[in-house]
Design goal:
The structure holds 2 protein chains of 2 kinds. Chain A is an alpha+beta fold. Helix content of chain A is 33%, strand content 13%. Chain A has a 5-stranded antiparallel β-sheet with strand order 1-2-3-7-6. In chain A, α9 packs antiparallel against α13 and α12 crosses α13. The longest helix of chain A is centred in the middle third of the chain and has 20 residues. The relative contact order of chain A is 0.15. Chain B is mainly α. Chain B has 3 domains: 139 residues, Cyclin-like (Cyclin A, domain 1); 229 residues, no CATH class; 53 residues, no CATH class. Chain B is 61% helix and 2% strand. In chain B, the strands form 2 sheets. In chain B, strands 1-2 form a two-stranded parallel ribbon. A two-stranded antiparallel ribbon of chain B has the order 3-4. Classes of the chains: A alpha+beta, B mainly alpha. At the A-B interface, α1, α2, α4, β9 and β12 of A face α5, α7, α22 and α23 of B. Chain B: GO terms for molecular function: cyclin-dependent protein serine/threonine kinase regulator activity.
């Protein structure tokens, strides 16, 4: 017979040898990266700024640490969330200039660390910089370059059959060299030959202000067109420095039924007019069609809206096409990139800030030092702060959609945490 | 990425050569009597994954993904140093998420307990809990290097071929296609589907099942999925000869009266295909000449032949593998008893494994496989029989033919792990007492331990 030690291992902890071997080979996050500071937090966890210790240039990175699950104070293994699996799996495959690059994933001590290339700015920060500091609109050259690169990245994602499903200013990053990087694929998913219908996994997708009308009307089936709608919202927000459709989100009820998003639809109708069945034939099939019919009637005044904000008939035309109600007729990413607006002066540039004088470039991302040492382990209050966090919509199955306020959080900005909403109200 | 295999992690990091495969099994090789036992383990584990996957109501693609995860994991690890059962459970758990059809961890815990405790475990119950599975998942994802998107031959098959007289994108096994795709997605591989080869339903099913079967081997690590798919199509042509109708085939159709009701349909459509081609409509119609179709693939024929050969030798090996309570056992034994020893070595493998394979119940194709096997001389069955441990394998009513059973393999895994443990046991006493039990299955094990002891004694 085997001795007690051996049979004990076989019986109670058969993977002990394996783990011992693996743990021995493991290189810790701390041994590879110098953590410089804390960037932001969300429902998913926290993001830190870090410097590589391995390369001599000390390349900068953003390390996203997924919030570990806890039972009381004890961190336990409870299974990797669907959102983390998606973000990891997709990022491992994707490679494009306008999509944020994943350098590596470190699984350590029950936590997942995703190491990304560092991006100095994001769209939300640029908006904030212009509305708060410069108090002037974003120049057409910058606006056009940002949108051009955003669409370029989106074409890549769509050509890979990936829906982003959470495009918004906070999730679109910009490097110090003015290159746009689409980030946060935590809600993204492959739509190539799915085994499950899209709505089965996630009841709610896209932050409310950027959510396409077909989603607001309860469509179970949706397409890449939802990302294109969000691009339109982002473009309008860059042009006006405030969200174009800033509705209040109706919360999920206790049974987690998705409610009718009355206010958000009204905000859209006020600008684009009430959709009619002629321009959007499948409108009548939408689950919320009858609720929608009870709303006040509006006419389209997007042209007026654009007059003072985009100052270009072509710019208006692009926006108009991105905001076509019928998802089947809405401009797709490929056609959007070919739009005439990008061919007229000023032309888009690969450094989006090429035309901007040095002192007008948005400042470097601020990091907070006092929280820096806390990457391991994560402090208690993190989850509370995350409630108004910038990226995450929680996932239907892994977390609790109803419990989070982040569904309505269009964006969150660490430097001024909390001031964004106030700023918008001025 | 979803469409571009050449840019995928699958292609860039996870297609390996035979030398790498061999290297990965070196540690395990010292604990088995015969290297072929490791190939049987390959079948055994794949079957367990399928069993667990079925319990969890997984789609075929999820099972396939779980199997690929399992194979990749054991490129870096050895059976003897791990608990393959918990690895299987974790692979299924991650595969469900990777394929966007997640299940609760409790289901995995519960169903894996049920499935694995049906295995021969030497009296020890197999236990697990949420914590253990989740912990294993963590290590597994790390060992998989976070590459979780897998390409499968099914996609190529359905892109290249369609069922006879059906519109585009009808899929096998009810796999939903097209959900979430909009019109601009249009071309998959062949655009409008114009270039698709129409296959009789039976042939498509055979090809699909052959692909299922390839997961029992290491093929998914050796070859890109489209190659496996084309080999499967090629092999399905052999069973469903589409161009040159062989009178003997038709006769066999007529005589195959024992075919179950559910398989009448494919059989009938095969006959239709045959009459179709014999009336020369087949070739004129949309240039649907399968030979030309394959030739148009413009792929290396030697490569295709070698992949096909590997599939055939899998069947030859599989022929010696036997689920304990296989319902067709008696019939198979009867079939076998009528044949000469040489014939049973060359013909029966494909035949019997085909009939065992999920929906491959038509046995009339066996003669084609048989001839292929014979011409290739792959895995001579008689050689391997002699080396199998007669005490552990089940002897059927046929003289000279031994089967490897799951019970035997389950014990083998246990012994391997015990042997490995005693090799690393800190106390010398543990080492020697351990080797006593190992001796039962592996006489050679003793020698290894002695060498080890000598080495320890030397310093």
């Amino acid at each position: 017979m085997l001795d007690e030690w051996s049979s004990n291992i076989l019986q109670h902890d058969p993977m002990r040898l394996y783990r011992a071997k693996r743990d021995l080979e493991h290189r810790t996050v701390i041994s590879k990266y110098n953590i410089l500071g804390f960037i932001s937090s969300g429902t998913y966890g926290r993001v830190y700024k870090a410097q590589s210790l391995d390369d001599e240039h000390g390349t900068l990175h953003a390390i996203k640490k997924f919030k570990p699950d806890k039972e009381g104070d004890v961190v336990t293994y409870t299974g990797i969330s669907q959102s983390a699996i998606r973000e990891i799996a997709l990022n491992r495959e994707l490679s494009h200039d306008n999509v944020v690059a994943l350098k590596e994933v470190i699984l350590e001590d029950k936590s997942i660390y995703m190491v990304f290339d560092y991006a100095e700015h994001d769209f939300l920060q640029v908006i904030h910089h212009h509305s708060q500091t410069l108090r002037s609109p974003i120049s057409t050259a910058v606006l056009k370059s940002l949108i051009y690169q955003l669409i370029n990245g989106l074409i890549y994602l769509h050509s890979c059959h990936v829906l982003h499903r959470d495009l918004k200013p906070a999730n679109i990053l910009i490097t110090g060299n003015g290159v746009v990087k689409i980030g946060d694929l935590g809600l993204a998913r492959l739509i190539y030959e799915p085994l499950q219908p899209l709505f089965a996994g996630d009841k709610v997708v896209v932050t409310i202000w950027y959510r396409a009308p077909e989603l607001l009307l309860g469509a179970k089936h949706y397409t890449k067109a939802i990302d294109c709608w969000a691009v339109g919202c982002v473009m309008a927000e860059l042009a006006s420095l405030r969200p174009i459709f800033k509705g209040e989100e109706a919360k999920l009820d206790s049974k987690k039924n998705v409610p009718f998003q009355r206010d958000q639809l009204l905000k859209i109708f006020e600008v684009l007019g009430t959709p009619d069945e002629k321009e959007w034939p499948s409108l009548v099939d939408m689950p919320e069609y009858h609720s929608m019919k009870r709303l006040d009637y509006f006419t389209n005044r997007l042209s007026d809206w654009c007059q003072s904000r985009l100052r270009s008939p072509q710019g208006y035309d692009l926006l108009r096409r991105l905001f076509i109600y019928d998802p089947e007729r809405r401009l797709n990413a490929k056609d959007a990139l070919q739009h005439k607006w990008f061919h007229e002066d000023p032309k888009p540039t690969w450094n989006a800030f090429a035309s901007v004088s040095t002192h007008q470039i948005p400042p470097h991302r601020r990091i907070s030092q006092d929280e820096a040492p806390s990457m391991v382990p994560i402090p208690q209050h993190a989850s509370l702060q995350g409630a108004h966090g910038h990226m995450g919509i929680p996932f239907g199955q892994q977390s609790k959609p109803g419990s989070s306020t982040s569904l309505s959080g269009g964006g969150h900005y660490v430097q001024s945490s909390g001031t964004r909403k106030k700023a918008r109200l001025q | 990425m979803a469409t571009d295999f050449w840019a995928s992690s699958h292609y860039k990091r996870w297609i390996v050569d035979r030398a790498t495969l061999h290297q990965a099994r070196l540690a395990d090789l010292q604990y088995v009597d015969n290297p072929e036992q490791l190939d049987f383990l390959s079948i055994y584990f794949a079957n367990l994954i399928t069993k667990l996957g079925r319990k969890l109501q997984f789609r075929q693609r999820v099972i396939a993904t779980a199997t690929v995860f399992f194979r990749r994991f054991y490129l870096k690890n050895s059976y003897s140093e791990t608990d393959p059962f918990i690895v299987i459970a974790a692979c299924c758990y991650v595969a469900a998420k990777a394929e966007e059809s997640p299940i609760h961890i409790k289901s995995i815990v519960q169903e894996s307990r049920t499935v694995f405790n049906q295995e021969e475990l030497n009296g020890r119950p197999w236990t697990t809990d949420n914590q253990k599975i989740a912990e294993m998942e963590f290590y597994l994802v790390d060992d998989l290097e976070c590459d979780l998107i897998i390409f499968h031959p099914y996609r190529t098959l359905l892109a290249l071929c369609k069922r006879e007289n059906t519109p585009l994108s009808t899929s096998e096994e009810g796999e939903d296609l097209g959900i979430g795709l909009d019109t601009d997605d249009g071309p998959r591989y062949w655009g409008t589907g114009e270039g698709q080869l129409e296959l009789p339903t039976g042939a498509l099913q055979v090809a699909w099942s052959i692909i299922n079967d390839t997961y029992k081997s290491q093929l998914c690590l050796l070859h890109p999925p489209h190659l496996i798919a084309i080999a499967a199509i090629y092999l399905s042509f052999i069973i469903h000869p589409p161009v040159r109708p062989d009178p003997s085939t038709i006769i066999e159709h007529e005589s195959a009266t024992t075919t179950p009701e559910s398989h009448r349909q494919p059989r009938r459509s095969t006959r239709q295909a045959n009459s179709h081609s014999s009336s020369k409509k087949f070739q004129s119609h949309n240039q649907q000449d399968p030979i030309a179709f394959l030739a148009d693939m413009n792929m290396s024929l030697p490569l295709l032949a070698s992949v096909s050969q590997e599939i055939i030798s899998l069947y030859a090996l599989w022929d010696q593998y036997k689920e304990d309570m296989a319902p067709d056992a008696a019939r198979l034994a009867r079939e076998l008893s009528g044949t000469s020893p040489v014939a049973s070595g060359s013909i029966s493998p494909a035949k019997r494994s085909m009939s065992r394979a999920d929906s491959l119940t038509q046995s009339y194709g066996s003669q084609y496989f048989g001839s292929l096997t014979a011409s290739a001389g792959a895995t001579p069955v008689t050689d391997t029989n002699e080396t199998l441990d007669t005490a552990s394998s089940v002897q059927e009513g046929v003289p000279g033919v031994h089967y490897v059973t799951p019970a035997f393999l389950s014990l083998l895994v246990q012994r391997m792990r015990e042997a490995k443990l005693s090799d690393v046991t800190p106390s010398a006493q543990g080492s020697s007492s351990g080797s006593g039990s190992i001796n039962v299955i592996s006489g050679r094990k003793m020698a290894v331990n002695k060498r080890l002891e000598r080495m320890q004694a030397a310093g």
